[in-house]
Amino acid sequence: MSFPWTNADALLRTRGRFGIHDERVPWSSLIVLTVLGGALYGFTMGSFSTVALLFGQETRDPPLRIFVAIFSATKVPLLLALSTSVCLPSFFVLNTLLGLRDDFSSAMRAILAAQGTLAIVLASLSPVTLFFYCCTERYSVASITNGVVFFLATLGAQVIMRRYYRPLIVKDGRHRLALTAWLMLYVFVAMQAAWMFRPFIGDPNLSVQFVRLDEWGICYVKIWEAISRFFTGR
Amino acid sequence: MPILREIDRLLRGEATSAESLRGGHIDIQTRTLVQAAVGLGAIYGAFMGMYAAFGETLNFGQLFASMIKVPLLFLLTLVVTFPSLYVFSALANTRLAPRDTLRLLTASIAVTLTLLASFGPVTGFFTFSTNSYEFILLLNVLFFGVSGIAGLIFLKRCLDSLFRPPEPPKPEEPMPSASEQKESDEGEEPEVIVVPPGVQAYPRPQPPRESPYATIRRNAEAERARTIFRIWTVIYGAVGAQMGWILRPFIGSPELPFQIFREGRDSNFFEAVLRTLGELMQ
Question: Cβ contacts of residue A168 below 8 Å, gap of 6+?
C-alpha cells in the first residue's frame, strides 16, 4: 500500500495504476483518496466559527464550535459517496440500454477518479479557505470562498473525467451521451444531498447541529419559493 | 557572495536553461532562493519604510515592520497557495515534481524581489524629495506592478520551455542545383551531362515535415502551459492581493498612527477595490 500522497499524484497525472488504458478499477485507493481529501476539506470548511472564536468573535455555543468542523469532516465524504451511489444504478441501466455494458468498468473508473480528484483539489485548497476565514467575520464571504473553491475542484474533476472518457468516446460515440446524462443526474442529486447535509460552514449565530432537521425539504422547491417571493414581493 | 552569484545565474537564465527545464529540473537550491527573497525583500522594505522613518512622523517602527512584511507578503502567499498550485500543475501533467514546482515558484518570487530591490534607491531618492504620501503610494504601486510583471514573464517563459516538446531534427543541407554546381566547378573540366540552368541536377531533398499529430501535440502543450499559467496567476494573485491587504500598512500614512497591522479583521481587498470604484462612479 503506497502513501495517499503518491497515489494522489499518480491519479492527477493518470499514471501507474491510474493509467487511462489500465483495465482494473483501483477501488480501495480511490475510496481512500476521496474520504481523506473530503474529510480534510470538510474540517477546514466547518472551522469558520472556530476561527471566529479564536479571533475573539462572539458565537453561539462556543465550546461546541469545533464539532461543526468534525461534523463537516464526516459530511463531505458522505455527500460525495451518497451522490455517487444514488446515481450509479441509473447510470448502469443507461449504459446497458445504450449497449455500452462491456465498457462499464472503464466508465466506473472515470467516475471514481473524478470523485477522487474533486476531493484532492478541495484538500489542496484548504489553506486558501482557511486564510480567507482568517480575513473575515462575515458568513457571506465564507460562502463565496467555498463556492469558488468547489467550482475550481469541479473543473479539476472534469479534466480527469474527460481524460478517462476520451478513449471511450473515440471507441463509441454513445459514451458522450452517457457522460452528459451522468453529469446532469449527478448535479441534480448532489445539490439536494448538499441541502440535506447542511450546515457545512456553520453560521456562528446558529446552534451546532449535525443536520438542520427543522429545515428539511427539497432544495429546488426552496429555490422556486425564493424566486416567487422575489417577483411577487410576498 | 554565493547567494548573489546564484541570483545572478538565475537572472541570466543559466539556472533555468531549456534543457534542464525540459527534464523537469531547476538548477538552483530552494534554500538559496528563499534566503535571497528574504534579503532582497527586506532591502526594499527598508526603502519603503523610509517615508515614515524620515518624514514628518519619524517612525522607525514602520521601517522595521516593512522590512519584515515585504518578504513575508510573497512567501506567506506561496505557503498558502502551494498545495493547490502543485495540484493544478500535476493535473496538467507537467514534468515538475513537488520540489521543482516549489523551486520554480520561489525562483519567480526571487526574480520579482530582485527587480523590486533594484528599484529601492529610486524609492529612497523620491522619499527624500517629497512629502506627498499619495505620490509615494503610487510610486510603490508602480514598482510592485512592474516587478510582478517581470516575475510573471519569467514564470511564463519557464512554463513554455517545460511544455515545449523536443525540436524535430534539423534537415540536412540541400543538394546544390545545377547552376550553383556550375559556378563552383568553374575552371575545371566540364561535366559530360549538361543540365539546363534552373533545372535541378538531382531532386532537392525536402526537409522532413512535422506530422499533423506532432503539430496538434505542440499546440495542445502550449495551451496546457497557458492554462496552468492562468490558474496559477489567478490563485496566487487573489491570495496575494488579500495578503497584502491584511499585512498593511507598508508605507504608513502620516494621518494615521503607527500600527503593525491595521485594526479590523473583517476587511477585504476586493470589497475595498469595488467600494473605491463605486465612489469614483458617483
Answer: A103, A106, A107, A110, A175
* C-alpha–C-alpha distance, residues B16 and B162, integer Å: 10
- Burial (CB count <10 Å: 0-12, 13-18, 19+), residue A140: exposed
**Which chain A residue shows the shortest CA-CA distance from B84?**
A124
Is the CB of B242 less than 8 angstroms away from the CB of A135? yes
Is residue A125 within 8 angstroms of chain B, CB to CB?
yes
- pLDDT value, residue A1: 47
- Give me the phi and psi of A47, to 5 degrees please: -90, 10
Higher pLDDT, B57 or A227: A227
Chain A interface mutation, best of B72, B86, B87, highest count of A Cβ atoms under 10 Å: B87
A131–chain B Cβ distance below 8 A for any pair: yes
Per-residue pLDDT of A126-157, as tens digits, reads 999 999 999 888 888 899 999 999 999 999 99
Q: What is the ipTM of this complex?
A: 0.84
Residues of chain B contacting A123 with CB distance shorter than 8 Å: 83
What stretch of H or E contains B98?
Answer: helix B98-129
- Cα separation, B120 vs B50, in Å, equals 10
User: Which residues contact residue A26 at a Cβ distance below 8 angstroms, ignoring those fewer than 6 apart?
Assistant: A17, A18, A109
Task: Report the pLDDT averaged over residues A196-213.
Answer: 86
pTM for the full model? 0.82
Interface residue B129 vs chain A (CB under 8 A): no
